[in-house]
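Quick board copy: two proteins, each given as sequence then C-alpha cells.
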Amino acid sequence: MNRPAEEGGLAAAPDPETFACQACGACCAYSAEWPRFSTEDDADIARIPAAYVDDPAGRMRCEGDRCSALSGRVGEAVSCRVYAVRPEVCRTCEPGDPECLIARRHHGLPV
C-alpha cells in the first residue's frame, strides 16, 4: 500500500471523480492575481480574445477573484471559454496538485 506523500510515501493518483476539472473550477476562481502570464509571448496572448485579457496587469481579466473566461458554477459544472488558447499557467495546473488542493479548500470542496 502506498503511504501519502506527506508521510514519505508515494502519493496515490487523484480520484478522477473527486478532481474532475469540469465539475470543479476552483483554481479559476481563487485569486485575481492568478493566472498571470509568465511564459507567453505576444503572439500567444494575442490568441486570447481581448475581452478576457487584463493587459496592464499581465494576466487574465477577473471578476472579483474569478477568471472572466470561466463559465458555470464552481463545484458543480464549469468550462473555460478560452480553453484552446489558455495561458501556460492554466495548462500546467494538474488535478490534485498543491495549487488545486489550496483552491478546493478555499471553496470548501473535498480534497
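And the next:
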Amino acid sequence: MLKKLGLIALCAASAFAMHNVELNINDKDLEFGAKVDMGQFNEAVDPDTVFIGAKILHGDEDHSDFNDNGDMNAYYEANFLMQKRVGSSDLVLGLGIKLNGTKNFSSIPLGIEATYKILNGAIPLYLKGAAYYAPEVLSMQDAESFLEYRVSLDVELITNGYVTVGYRSIDTNYDSNKGGDINYNRSAYIGVRFAF
C-alpha cells in the first residue's frame, strides 16, 4: 500500500506543482509527507506563506506504547499551514491546523511551527520545531486529547534539497476504558526533503 501511495504522490507532484515532498525513516518507522504551496496557484497569495499537505506515518510497536496484538495502525493527517517571516530576520513563524487519526482515533489539533536559519553560507543549516495540541472538544472517536511535537535540524546540501535529523512525539490520549494515555510514536529519524 505504501508503494502505491508513493507512486500517487510522484504523479501528484508533477501534476500539481507540489511545493515539497519528504521521506523520514529510522530502523522501524516510515513517514511520507507532501505540501502544496498555494502561492503557486493564486496570485493573491504570496509564495511560501500558505500550504496544504498530507502525511502518513507507519509507526512500529517498538517506538510506541501499543502492545504487540495488532493494535498499531497507520497514522494519517491532512494539514493547513500559514507562515510568515518575522521582519528581515531568519525566523519564520507559522500557525497550523490538522485533521489526523488512526483507525480508532481522530482529532483536529491546532499548532505553531517555527524555522530559524542558524547558519548561512555554502551549506545553510535550519532549526525547525512544531507543536500541535487538540483538547477533548477537538478529539473524536475514542480520543480524549492529542499532543504532537517535533524538533529537527535541516541541512541544505543542494539547492532545495535537504537532509533532516529529527525527533517526534505523537501522544494520543484515549478514553480511560480504551487504554488511557498512549504514545503512538516516540522516535528519532533521518530523512530527505525536496522543494519544487
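Board note added afterward: The longest strand covers residues 143-158.
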